[in-house]
Amino acid sequence: MSKRLLYVEDNFADVTLFKEFLPEHIELMVISNGEQAQEYLGKLEKNGSLLPELIVLDINLPDISGFELLKTIKGSEALNHIPTIMFSSSSNERDVKNAYSHAANGYVTKEMDIDDYSHKLKSFIRYWFKTTELPEVIQ
Amino acid sequence: MPLSNLENFKTIFNAISDGISIIDPDGNHIAVNEAMTKITGFSHEEIYASRPPHCYWPEEELDNISAAFDKTLDGASVDFELLFKKKDGTRFPVSVYPSEIKSDDGDTKYFVATIKDLTEHKKQQQLLNETQFNYQVLLENTTELVCRHTLDGTFLFVSANVQDLLGYSPDELIGKNPYLYHHPDDVERIKRESHEIAMQNDKPPRIIYRFRKKDGTYLWLDTITHPLASSDGEVEQLVTVSRDVTDTKELEFELKRNLSDLKRSNEELENFAYVASHDLKEPLRMISGFSRLLGKKYADSLDDVANQYIQIIDDGAKRLEILISNLLSYSRTNSKEFVFEPTELSGVIQEALEANRQLLDENDAVVNVGQLPVLNLEPVQIKRVFANLIQNAVKYRSEAKPRIDISSKKFKDHHVISVRDNGVGIQPKDFERVFQIFKRSVPLEDQNGVGIGLAICKKIVEKHQGQIWIEQNEDQGVTFNILIPDKI
């Protein structure tokens, strides 16, 4: 069964790279701005549709910032259980602290070296899907 | 004491400090006391032998002397200021008080003249006049405002230059209290830091404050207040000496403004460097990532030339990445808040050596660390400096086995830490240049070249209010010296 991943990222090149190294059997939803992402999640919640099992957020988005979006997700009872990872090229301490203070489940930097990037991306996605996988019975 | 006692009379006559001469109506001396001989320098015999005009009468004064005689004969009883002549010819001022002694039948029996030597008196007078003149000249020509005040500050005297300085005449201020003219924001400070201190009769306090001119604008005055105390130490009046420091004050304000402008512009520049280097990394990541991806994914369908081009793009991107990382690191060092704490330098050096352990071992380097002090340092940052210097010493080694000597020397208020190597050395013309951003003294041979390393070292040392400089060793290599003040 495939896993659902929501990636909020406005940069086409980043999305392309992300897709390039994304492990198989993942159903990827890409949204390129914060408000649309909020809207999308709100709709899923209302309709009782299947929620993503992992959310990956860029920090710099064209409208609201990734942090704002993170706040909304972690402030929502219906969504706050979804592992949400900040994925950014910034290694600024302030950004990292900001992420965790808003209850991000992880902060991953976009590596400069393509091999490192690919390795990191695959690892954290596998890690979070594995960690949050529930036993068959409950599913 | 009966006057008839001639001995007694003589004793008194000679004991008197003023000269006395008794002259008969023909002008001949009947008696002259000791003082008269002392004053004039002529002996009794010489004076007695003298006939008018007498030996102690200067030729040029004869008219005045005879006029004095005439006046005395007319019954005047006044002092005459005359010039007399000493035996050596010098003239000296005297005050002569002649009186006429008449016989019972009313004829002049003789004259008694008391002669006071005015030389000292005149000298004192002149001195006094000069001193007064000096004070006057000083008061009239000084640019400093001099005032005398009662204990509550009321003006008792104001020097005339107040007119030029403040626009008031002295009379407009005398009797007024200066506090009426002080800038409201300065009043409390003047009371506290100047007025009250001066009343304690200790060191005269000095204060800079604003005084309102007649035209309503304010002048900055630099005032020293001296207490005038009575002999028992009781302060009775105050004297203030004030200087116009408006120009200096304005310069000071301008300097402060410029400094804050400079600080802001530096902050903006640091912020710019940070943002620029961060934002530059984004597109660079794409160039590097996609060129590699292209090379990997399509290697088989591209020819060798195309693959080589991809390699060139990749290399360029990597180089650019290092430059940007270094720039980021430099701007971070710049904007970082340094927290100084007493730090054992030897511990910091050990950590810096550990960080380079592999490099040191691979090169079989010998490191000799001397006695090192405890200094007020930002330990993490200063470790970066030494790690960098140690790394350079090995990386730019000569044929000889690398040898690093780290030592410290104490000076009056600072220490100089030296890192001496036996490497390839640096051309003296590059001693300054190597500390500049992106400058290196050796050709770019490896991707991890320092470039900005020494610029960061310099920045860190400067943040310790220290200095870093290079010295040529006599035999081989260079010594990096780092001066760290004891108090930061």
In short:
The complex is a heterodimer of chains A (139) and B (488). With 139 residues, chain A is an alpha/beta fold.
Features:
heterodimer, A: 139 residues, alpha/beta, Rossmann fold, globular, B: 488 residues, alpha+beta, Beta-Lactamase, Helix Hairpins, 4 domains, five-stranded antiparallel β-sheet, 43% helix, 24% strand
CATH superfamily of the largest domain in chain B: Histidine kinase-like ATPase, C-terminal domain
Radius of gyration of chain A: 14 Å
Radius of gyration of chain B: 47 Å
Span from first to last CA of chain A? 12 Å
Q: What global shape of chain A is seen?
A: globular
CATH H-level superfamily of chain A? Response regulator
> Globular, elongated, flat, extended or rod-shaped: what is the shape of chain B?
elongated
User: Which architecture of the largest domain in chain B would the CATH scheme give at its second level?
Assistant: 2-Layer Sandwich
Q: How many β strands of chain B by DSSP? A: 17
How much helical structure, as a percent, in the residues of chain B? 40-55%
- Compute the number of structural domains of chain A: 1
What separation lies between the terminal Cα atoms of chain B? 89 Å
Unreliable residue stretches of chain A? none
Count of all domains of chain B: 4
Give the structural class of chain B.
alpha+beta
- CATH class value of the largest domain in chain B: Alpha Beta
**Main sheet: strand order of chain A:** 2-1-3-4-5
Number of helices of chain B: 14
What's the architecture of chain A in CATH terms? Answer: 3-Layer(aba) Sandwich
Strand content of chain A: 15-25%
Give your account of this protein's structure.
The complex is a heterodimer of chains A (139) and B (488). With 139 residues, chain A is of the alpha/beta class. Chain A has one domain (3-132): Rossmann fold (3-Layer(aba) Sandwich), CATH 3.40.50. Helix content of chain A is 45%, strand content 18%. Chain A has a five-stranded parallel β-sheet, sandwiched between helices. Chain B is α+β, with helices and mostly antiparallel strands. Chain B folds into four domains: 6-121, PAS domain (Beta-Lactamase), CATH 3.30.450; 142-244, Beta-Lactamase (2-Layer Sandwich), CATH 3.30.450.20; 251-335, Helix Hairpins; 341-485, Histidine kinase-like ATPase, C-terminal domain (Heat Shock Protein 90, 2-Layer Sandwich), CATH 3.30.565. Helices cover 43% and strands 24% of the residues of chain B. Chain B contains 14 helices and 17 strands. Chain B has helices at residues 6-15, 34-40, 44-49, 62-73, 119-141, 162-166, 170-173, 187-199, 246-297, 304-335, 345-355, 357-362, 379-395, 453-463; strands at 19-23, 29-32, 80-85, 91-102, 108-117, 145-149, 155-158, 206-212, 218-229, 235-244, 341-344, 366-369, 374-377, 403-410, 414-420, 467-472, 478-485. In chain B, strands 2-1-5-4-3 form a five-stranded antiparallel β-sheet. In chain B, strands 7-6-10-9-8 form a five-stranded antiparallel β-sheet. In chain B, strands 12-14-15-17-16 form a five-stranded mixed β-sheet. In chain B, strand 9 (218-229) and strand 10 form a beta hairpin. In chain B, helix 10 (304-335) packs parallel to helix 14, helix 11 (345-355) crosses helix 13 and helix 13 packs antiparallel against helix 14. The radius of gyration of chain B is 47 Å and the shape is elongated. The two termini of chain B are 89 Å apart. The relative contact order of chain B is 0.05. The chains are: A alpha/beta (139), B alpha+beta (488).
